[in-house]
Amino acid sequence: MLQRQQAGAVVAARKQIVEGAVGMVEMALTRIAEQDIVELDPDRKAAMVSNLMVVLCGDRSAQPVLNTGTLYQ
Question: pTM for this structure?
Answer without folding.
Answer: 0.73
